[in-house]
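Tutorial sheet, problem 5. The two components below are modelled jointly, 608 residues in total.
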Amino acid sequence: MRISSDEYTGIEEWHASSGHDVQFYESDDFLADRVSAFIQAGLEAGDGCIVIATPAHREQIERRLKAKGTHLAAARLRGTYIAQDAAETLATFMRERSPDPRRFAEVIGGMIQRVAQGYPARSVRAYGEMVSLLWQEGNRAAAITLEELWNDLHDSIHPFSLCCAYPMAGFAGEEEQQAFLAICESHEHVMPAESYAALATATERTRAITLLQQRASSLQAEIAERKKVEERLRQLEARKDAFIVMASHELKTPVTSLKAFTQILKRRMAQQTDHQSDLKTLLMLDRMEAQLERLIGLVGELLDVSKMESHILTYRDSIFDFDTMVRETMADMQALSTRHTICLEGETGAQVYGDHDRLAQVLTSLLDNAIKYSPEGQSILVRLSTHPEPDSSLVEVAVQDHGMGISEQHQAYIFERFYQVGDGQGGTYAGLGIGLYIARQLVERHNGRLWVESQPGEGSTFHVILPCVRQDVADPFGGSQYEED
Amino acid sequence: MSGQQKMILVVDDEPDIVFALVTILEDAGYHTIAKAKADHLAQQMHQSEQLPDLILLDMLLSGQRGTEIARELKQHPTTRHIPILMLSAHPNAEREAKAAGADGFIPKPFDMDDLLEKVAAFL
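Model answer (structure tokens):
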């Protein structure tokens, strides 16, 4: 709702003769109304007036002044009205990221003396948005210094009244509280934003203040409560991560002996007999070993996620041949499925700098998915290609299956933790739903991208793009150490 | 393996893992000694006349830690030359093992052929 300027009966006028006011505002319209009323009254009283504002605000203010019959052109000619761009004026006295006191006094002091035109008794009114600009840029210290420079100017040259304005939205958040107090401290008069200014009577205002006090108190209680909950969540999260690390370790101990015994039995059986019944036993031992590998993989995935969340996943970076890594990973995965044929198309001839095993893990994960979501068998195509870019070179490996595909609705979530695509009949496929999450994290850690293109019923293609080592650059990493825990 | 049979000391507090390791190594022709605890192992070895040719040492032993033992063995002139392969299921153990002076690292669960390959490399 726009409140017309006539409705601001519940707020005092800006101080006309001297003083340093600050006006908070919620809408530009309210601000323009306030500034134009302040300037209009000044010009009518024969005061010198200065507006240092953004182009948009100057335009709004002057439109209102003209609508009220103020002859701005005449005032400009007489030299009693100066309007300046806030950013340009600020630039004239900023040094590095702080206002220079001497230049400020020259620029702004000179402007005040110009509109006073040598008449000691002439009042001067100034409205400025430079502090607000600094505030919005995040340069809090410079804004507060500038406020103090305005105060110093008060005491040293021609008397003037000044008003600065800040959008209330610039102070949202608990961390702004101290800065907000500093701003209020540096002004003689603090004017609330329009939601308070619209209140006409003292009763309405005291009621509003009481309500605001209650709101502030309940917000404070809510913040305290939320902080407690956040802290508790942090503790639980840390405990969960510690639990996963501990549980994975505990799970690995029995798995270690199981795997070792299975391999011992397999070797001993293979050496001792070739009877048909024993071949079946050997086959079962093979399956046992495969299932154990699956269990080890699941434990590893849980550990990876936990370490990623805690930023303690270890990487061993080196330069390696990308195509060889792809071919080796494909061969390992082909050995696990007789129903699928994994084919390779293209080559990159490129070398990649990164963690060989972790990037192989990404490809394993994509091939594992392609196998899992193509239950009818079929072929899986791995495509290698390069993307020469002006500033860098990229390699791509794409894994295409002809399986069930992924609907657009699922595509948005499949890279999230613990998200699983069902089989359409209420069931889910094996796995923890973290393989793709891990894969994307690993690719992004290598400054690459992983995404999917898919049509339900037509299969999916997962694309991985990674930067590769440029042959024309002697030291592709500028001699920097690229090691991370 | 005939003639001089190489001796491997296996230290792990998990009996089934010790059993599996000893079986794998003996099937491959090595002579083994197994210990479930390694408290004062370094002192015992400094005084021993027959030293192993290689030590397979678990990292997280109950009692004295594997890394501590490795450090003591590597500091003493009589045992410094014995290769130590550390085993662990802990995710960040490899770096710690190397820092303690271990010559190699075998993550648990291990693959039998990988284990034998790593052992053979030092013997």
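Marking note: The helical segments of chain B are 15-27, 41-47, 66-75, 93-99, 112-122. Full credit if you identified this.
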